[in-house]
Write a structure and sequence with these properties.
With 1027 residues, the chain is of the alpha/beta class. The protein is 36% helix and 16% strand.
């Protein structure tokens, strides 16, 4: 049995597709085309999967047929067969691997609806957006996708799609790999078939020796039903799911292809300059446009040219066999000299189908004599030329489709004037047979041998460590006594700290265990430890350096001293529950009471005394102590009070650490500062603090920028160092930021780097669309549409993780998320990245606490306990493997200390273990962005009432702190900074017309370009249509 199958199409749920991509119209057009098996496309999109389940019925072979109630009108096309459907979908994988951004499209062929539903559910649980586009864009490695699919059902097949397309394919020049093995690693044996794509064919692939073992198929990637079958396959097997996938694995199918030169990216070129170059000429020009001198858009043929490694065998020996076609409407249009979409052409097209049969049978099988008899000699001559490859071709390039002609100008009309030219004794001279390759493969191989013998002069050795400037050197060289380092954004705070620690150890000033480094987040502590572990002068000594958050240090001290060693640390949720249990709290805001208690314990109440709140706070403290509980603030307050009251314990702690280094000193509140002072040895006073008063943004937690002045008063003998250069921000970005803050002590930025735009928008929706479109352009796009429409900047390779959208409040997120979804841009929020704020975490802690309660002597290795938990709960909970990995890596450091592991998790829950995903735009609040940096930063909502924030507060905003908060947001940017405001914004179901923030008036035109965006709003789910 032989039949034609087109396994890669799309539905009306995909962007830039026809609304007629429904099962009914696909069924109809498949009969017109002669396609016997159609891939459904998009089958993990919830809406499309639901529609397929409603309209299709099983044939019990893994294939599905359209229910008769959904059949459209019969057209009586001879020999037309009812088509069947096979479940398929295309996935866009965008991720970073081996230092490069990868954009790889993969086709999944799925055996049944249940498997499709399980894949859909799994991707949802992993946090991926599968609803905004029929072809979902996942920040997931292709390797991980294959592993996930095989774990769900090993009968599934993954086929890398259009493998040579420059931007979105496994071998693409701009974002692909050099081999299939590099992409899929040890899972490569599960990849047996590759899709050639519209810009390549079988012969082109067969000059690349690395691909010899893979079978090749070809599909239409149809975005409208009339494009079905323009590329397809002839299978020689039974019509069933298993037979089709086995036939691919056994190389038992042939391809039907448009001429690859018709593809939009066949040659290299530059559309704006109308430059199209074959690979040898593109190489001669070194990939640069000879007109505008900008980089050419690489063509598929250039990439084949690069990877070619063998000569092409005789045509009859090439496998699989291949057949070229030109769509029948295009041939008819050429004959009657009009557009292929014209009414006249389509009338002739349907008339021909009703006489001769489905389109692919006409193009490939029906004898030309029969075509001449029933449809005219000119059509027969055209198809005869097509079958002999006697065509004239203008190859496609840079998004422009190629042009394939079978007749010279006026030639078709000459045929039409004669009665039976197909049988004419002396027909006009036909074009010569077009070659299978557009370059000389022998010459290519000779050049490769020559170039491989030449030394590579492009490799440069990069310094393992950055060069230290003089101001950094002075701070690093500080020997004894207290010191302050004023370090602005990007000036190398962590570098100075790690280098000073390394110097103290390497010069034998202090042993590693006597040096304490304090940070304020676990992320910062991990970064510092990694730097020290890789430092060339430390070796094994780095592992014994105490590096801790200030709260972890407090907990460590408490665990050493009864009765606090048995106290349990409660979560913020438990804290609120305890507060709500008091009668006096029933008519009060639990959040405000909790904040009052925190400020009280942080010694930062500052005359905000509230009699009712104070009574509740007293009851709360009594309840904690009575039940042997402690909250997050107690981790500082309890050890502080203990050390004040017990000189012996205080002396032990002071002698334990002779050098204390504190990062982000501006974030310290009064209680924490008192704690740092009391653990510092009174004779040495080796307290070394580093920070930036202009980045003090946690006043609501009790921090205050004048703490640097307080330090100088308490340690009058201290030395002050001031770093003078930022290695992060472009000079204009820094100048604009320091203008905002009205500071004359600005850092020197990176010269000739940095761009600031202040952009006015009509509404918050147009602002969000502007941001999403800007990201789409700079990343190089996430869809073909971004290139074809000119939105994307070709060849760009900026990871999505290098883009941050910063907001003053999470209430701004929904509109931005809608825009990101519309552009298919994966995103991550700080909340989504925090595993420690999850139901999974609570269940793990409960599981471990039960083990402690039931077996107090030997709890077992934490890592093994977690393994057991995941084995027992993975099928039910669908725990993501990445999430498991994070927990397992943490557990590995705790050995048998189950209680220590629980303490660590509880301790970090308030601050989180936010991990920046490489494959997602970062959507963060300004506070959450503290300590991070990005190449491109967009700040949203710079309007009065939002920045400074006062819309939903009963008290006036701290204007100076709000200004510092915007300063922090601006200085996250390395290359570009876009500050945005809207004339109209909807927040919390309220439409507001707010003026731009008065902060912006401080930024001069010298340092920022002010523009007005004219982009239209784009609402959720808006369809892009070109048909």
């Amino acid at each position: 049995m032989s039949f034609i199958a087109d396994l890669h199409i799309h539905s009306h749920f995909s962007l830039a597709t026809s609304k007629e991509l429904t099962p009914e119209h696909l069924h109809l057009w498949a009969m017109r085309k002669g396609v016997d098996v159609i891939g459904t496309g998009d089958c993990i999109h919830p809406g499309w999967l639901s529609e397929l389940q409603e309209k299709l019925e099983s044939t019990q072979t893994g294939l599905y047929r359209l229910k008769t109630t959904y059949h459209l009108a019969e057209e009586n096309i001879p020999e037309a067969q009812e088509p069947l459907f096979i479940l398929s979908t295309e996935i866009s994988n965008i991720y970073k691997k081996k230092g490069r951004v990868r954009k790889v499209h993969n086709i999944l062929i799925i055996p049944d609806f249940r498997t499709a539903s399980l894949i859909q559910q799994k991707l949802k649980l992993l946090g991926f957006n599968i609803t905004s586009d029929g072809r979902p864009i996942l920040g997931m490695d292709s390797y991980d996708l294959l592993r996930l699919v095989l774990d769900i059902n090993p009968r599934c097949a993954l086929v890398p799609a259009h493998i040579w397309t420059p931007w979105f394919s496994v071998l693409g020049a701009s974002s692909g790999f050099d081999s299939i093995e590099e992409c899929f690693e040890d899972l490569t044996p599960y990849i047996h078939t590759l899709e050639t794509g519209l810009s390549s064919d079988v012969p082109m692939n067969r000059v690349v020796g690395k691909l010899d073992r893979f079978h090749l198929i070809s599909n239409s990637d149809a975005h409208s039903p009339d494009r079905l079958g323009r590329n397809a396959n002839i299978f020689f097997c039974d019509k069933s799911f298993d037979a089709i996938t086995e036939a691919m694995a056994r190389h038992q199918s042939e391809t039907i292809d448009l001429f690859p030169q018709e593809g939009k990216y066949h040659f290299a070129g530059h559309r704006k300059c109308k430059v199209s170059l074959p690979p040898d000429e593109a190489a001669y020009h070194q990939g640069i446009c000879p007109v505008c001198h900008k980089k050419l858009t690489s063509g598929v043929l250039d990439r084949v040219f690069q990877l070619a490694s063998k000569t092409l065998p005789d045509e009859e020996s090439i496998s699989p066999r291949f057949h070229y076609i030109i769509p029948l409407p295009e041939i008819i249009a050429e004959i009657i000299n009009t557009k292929s979409s014209s009414k006249k052409v389509m009338e002739k097209y349907f008339q021909t189908l009703k006489i001769l049969g489905p389109e692919l049978k006409i193009l490939l099988q029906i004898p030309c004599s029969r075509i001449a008899e029933h449809a005219g000699g000119e059509l027969a001559e055209a198809i005869e030329r097509l079958r002999q490859r006697r065509v004239m071709i203008t190859p496609g390039y840079d998004g422009e489709y190629g042009v394939i002609k079978v007749f010279r100008p006026g030639e078709a009309q000459n045929y039409a004037q004669k009665s039976s030219l197909f049988h004419d004794e002396s027909p006009l001279t036909r074009p010569t047979t077009y070659p299978l390759l557009s370059f000389n493969i022998h010459q290519v191989l000779e050049q490769k041998v020559l170039y491989s013998a030449m030394p590579d002069s492009s490799t440069e050795q990069k310094a393992a460590y950055p060069i230290t400037d003089e101001l950094q050197k002075a701070a690093i060289a500080h020997d004894q006594g207290p010191a302050i380092v004023i370090a602005g954004p990007g000036s190398g705070k962590t570098y100075v700290l790690t280098e000073r620690i390394a110097r103290l150890i390497s010069q034998n000033i202090a042993p590693s265990e006597k040096i304490l480094a304090i940070t304020f987040t676990t992320r910062a502590a991990q970064e510092m430890r990694q730097r020290l572990m890789s430092h060339p002068s430390l070796h094994q000594q780095a592992s014994s350096i105490p590096i801790s958050t200030i709260h972890a240090l407090g907990l460590q001290i408490l665990r050493e001293i009864p009765p606090y060693s048995s106290f349990r640390l409660i979560s913020e949720a438990e804290k609120v529950k305890i507060i709500q249990s008091f009668p006096q709290a029933q008519n009060q805001s639990s959040a405000k009471i909790a904040n009052y208690i925190s400020l009280l314990k942080n010694h930062a109440l500052n005359f905000r005394f509230n009699e009712v709140f104070q009574e509740i706070a007293n009851q709360y403290e009594f309840s904690l102590h009575n039940n042997q509980l402690m909250d997050y603030e107690d981790l500082i307050l309890l050890p502080l009070n203990l050390l004040k009251e017990n000189d012996q314990i205080c002396s032990q702690i002071q002698n334990r650490y002779r050098f204390i280094l504190v990062d982000e000193f501006q974030d310290v509140n009064p209680a924490q500062y008192d704690f740092l002072k009391i653990i510092t040895h009174p004779q040495d006073n080796n307290l070394f603090v580093i920070g930036d008063p202009l980045q003090s943004i946690y006043g609501f937690r009790g921090a205050y920028p004048s703490i640097f002045e307080t330090f100088l008063q308490d340690f009058p003998q201290s030395t002050t160092y001031r770093l003078g250069k930022s290695y992060r921000c472009g000079d204009k970005i820094l100048k604009a930021a320091y203008e905002l803050i009205d500071s004359e002590n600005g850092l020197e930025g990176v010269p000739e780097k940095g761009k600031v735009n202040i952009v006015q928008h009509a509404t918050d929706r147009s602002e969000a669309e502007f941001i999403a479109r800007s990201i789409d352009a700079t990343t190089g796009g996430t869809r073909f549409f971004a290139y074809d429409s000119g939105v994307a900047q070709a060849q760009a390779e900026t990871p999505l993780s290098e883009f941050a959208i910063l907001c003053r409040t999470t209430r701004q997120f929904p509109t931005i998320i809608t825009a990101l979804n519309n552009h298919g841009l994966p995103y991550q929020t700080a909340q989504a990245g925090n595993l420690l704020d999850s139901e999974l975490l609570a269940e793990i802690i409960l599981y471990l606490r039960k083990i402690i309660d039931n077996n107090k002597k030997n709890n077992g290795h934490v890592e093994n306990l977690l393994k057991n938990y995941f084995v027992q709960n993975l099928p039910e909970k669908n725990v993501a493997k990445d999430d498991q990995k994070i927990f397992m890596e943490i557990a590995r450091d705790f050995g048998n200390d189950v209680k220590g592991f629980i303490d660590f998790i509880d301790l970090n829950a308030p601050t989180g273990l936010y991990a920046n995903k490489e494959n997602a735009v970062q959507l963060l609040t300004l506070h959450a962005a503290k300590g991070l940096e990005f190449e491109h930063v967009f700040i949203s909502g710079c309007e009065e009432g939002i920045i400074p924030y006062s819309l939903f507060e009963n008290q006036e905003a701290d204007t100076e702190e709000e200004k510092r908060l915007l300063f922090v947001g601006m200085t996250r940017a390395k290359k570009t900074l876009s500050i945005n405001y809207a004339d109209s914004r909807k927040i919390f179901h309220q439409n507001m017309n707010l003026p731009p923030s008065h902060f912006l008036s401080a930024i001069s035109p010298t340092n920022a370009i002010r523009t007005k965006s004219n982009l239209p709003e784009k609402r959720e789910g808006q369809q892009l249509s070109f048909f």
